[in-house]
């Protein structure tokens, strides 16, 4: 059944809308499990690119959706608002740090939310330039891809007002050493970028991922984000955090920057915000989002159904203590992965916070040559054995582990056993590489 469906799907769905790692056709999903059209069940470590933070098919969200749709299926909040959007905005403001006046903008995806940043921050600051980081992934619309520094967007020419600087990657330090990594990146920004192509008095904002997600689940040095905040305050530059993928509890706190007591000027949310429904948000200083009337709006933004789903999702995260679950089980997951690292030389690095984890594969640990084909093979073999994982990174060699925050230790043990088997099968050349090559991912 799956193969027949996938052939039909390939005839009508554009390739520009696809990233495929294995031949799965989904029938249903519940909790942490996905069932294929062939009836096979998979433990999902992807959460659909981190969207299913509370798991699939949560009964509370299902009930809330039915209730909201029957009561009010739609109103365009742009011109005829209703209470749900206000309640959601109040909740987002409450969980986001900062004792200054804040407002909320609502959209449909991380892309249009980062487009909001690309448009409004320069306008609000009356400065033309923005700074982002190499390896960053902020979206696929023109504004958001302009902010991005990922190879997936390199074929497009975005806005020329964005300057990209190296992300402080401890495993692959951009300046060749790790002992002064924070100093090196920030000195490069101040001594080179600010003095040549991007003067601070012309720079409106710096946008960063607290953990660089699609760039390879890279965790910066502990002192980097606090010192970046200090630099932004010194030059009166807005500091924006893209929390689309790692926000809302995934790292063991509401937001990745909460680990460092950093207070951003704007926070971008998406993916897991709607419990599976499309909704995004920007929570920012009032002066950023009030810079103009009707200058970044979409007819269905903040619609009552998606807003209701989002409100319920945030309440579930609190009621079910999913942030704590992410912290505790994330630590356990990392410990088990580090044991695998001791066993297999191809595992060059294991890193992450909470349930945002990256496993970087290399050909050997001395050269750190990226092992992209082996990474694809592991993901494919895991699929064959009943586990879903994707790979990311600018070298396509990082296994991304972003499961639903509801995952249990027993399920983590199952995932580790399948990963172990997959590495063993790769070592013994039991994986059909011809099949793997059909699913190049990205």
Features:
alpha/beta; Aspartate Aminotransferase, domain 1; Aspartate Aminotransferase, domain 2; 7-stranded mixed beta sheet; 4-stranded mixed beta sheet; 14 helices; 15 strands; 16% strand; globular; PyrdxlP-dep_Trfase_small; pyridoxal phosphate binding; Aspartate aminotransferase family protein; transaminase activity
CATH architecture of the largest domain: 3-Layer(aba) Sandwich
Helical proportion? 25-40%
Briefly, what CATH class of the largest domain? Answer: Alpha Beta
How many E-type strands?
Answer: 15
Query: Given the structure, what is the number of helices?
Result: 14
Family: Belongs to the class-III pyridoxal-phosphate-dependent aminotransferase family.
Cofactor: pyridoxal 5'-phosphate
InterPro entries: Aminotrans_3 (IPR005814), Aminotrans_3_PPA_site (IPR049704), PyrdxlP-dep_Trfase (IPR015424), PyrdxlP-dep_Trfase_major (IPR015421), PyrdxlP-dep_Trfase_small (IPR015422)
Protein name: Aspartate aminotransferase family protein
